[in-house]
Amino acid sequence: MKKIRAGIMGGAGYTGGELLRLLLRHPHVEIAFVHSTSNGGKPVYQVHSDLLGETDLHFSSTYTNEVDVLFLCAGHGAARKFMESYTGKALVIDLSQDFRLKGEHVAGDRAFTYGLPELQREAIKEATAIANPGCFATCIQLALLPLAERKQLTAPVHISGITGSTGAGQSLSETSHFSWRNNNVSAYKVLTHQHLAEIRQSLEALQQTEIPPIHFVPYRGNFSRGILTTCYLQTELTLEAAQALYRDYYAGHPFVHLASENPDLKQVVNTNKCVLYLEKQGDQLVIISLLDNLLKGAAGQAVQNMNISFGFEETAGLNLKASAF
């Protein structure tokens, strides 16, 4: 099979680095360029030090339109600005939040398709531009999609979630310094997190009705990568009925797994998996959802979307293994 050519805009950040690692090992991809305005001319291993000996690629301060797929790993707002002048014909996969919401998903003559494979696989196959979901949004939607499909989101949903420091990006801030983050946990954007809009958009489209309130409290964790969320809501479903519903929904989706025992974060870190676990306590259904924010929550999902779009095996280049230690 002929390889496709890929370009990465904004390749010096965390998600750009993850994309590099995945695409360097992808059986159907060759990397045409890795763009970085601030690192043009440098070997990529000077920024992503683990790639020493893995590649001779250098960062480029320019880019070419002669690619089949273009990943945008620029900051929020920068992707929309880039698309205003982009004239290439490549499939564009944007990892920012610029094009995720209806009404904000159009750039020039392109309409971005929301790229959650477990919801939009058929639409992704036809897309010319894909808006990769947010990391918390992915984790929470995968916890709730089966309920929405069966119109079972009839009570308010309460969610708590904790994320690693890489979720804040590579730029330094007060709350990303080691001395602040280590041995520390804090809540932030309580009930106002920006991913709530895309979560509601997807769930209401699937349930085909307005859903009850979603109350989400996110936390900053004192670890590098990974997300764990706990959702709970009132329902008449038995645990056995809920488990069957989830097994049926995810039967054809290779990266979502239903656990029989309460999982832990190390089961998903460094993988493209999302692991779900259900409990029933009284009339409350509890759904625990875990994933790696940089992979299934970002770069891994972007490659999954690329695989679907180009007709590759959905798991190509994504057979990654977690470590128990």
UniProtKB/TrEMBL annotation:
Its main location: cytoplasm. It is an enzyme of class 1 (oxidoreductase). Pfam families: Semialdhyde_dh, Semialdhyde_dhC_1. Keywords: Amino-acid biosynthesis, Arginine biosynthesis, Cytoplasm, NADP, Oxidoreductase. PROSITE patterns: ARGC (PS01224). Its EC number is 1.2.1.38. GO terms for biological process: L-arginine biosynthetic process. It is found in: Cytoplasm. It catalyses: N-acetyl-L-glutamate 5-semialdehyde + phosphate + NADP(+) = N-acetyl-L-glutamyl 5-phosphate + NADPH + H(+). Pathway: Amino-acid biosynthesis; L-arginine biosynthesis; N(2)-acetyl-L-ornithine from L-glutamate: step 3/4. GO terms for cellular component: cytoplasm. GO terms for molecular function: N-acetyl-gamma-glutamyl-phosphate reductase activity; NAD binding; NADP+ binding. The active site is at C135. Residues 5-127 form the Semialdehyde dehydrogenase NAD-binding domain. It comes from the Bacteria. NCBIfam families: argC. Catalyzes the NADPH-dependent reduction of N-acetyl-5-glutamyl phosphate to yield N-acetyl-L-glutamate 5-semialdehyde. Belongs to the NAGSA dehydrogenase family. Type 1 subfamily. This is N-acetyl-gamma-glutamyl-phosphate reductase. It comes from Adhaeribacter soli. The lineage of its organism: Bacteria, Pseudomonadati, Bacteroidota, Cytophagia, Cytophagales.
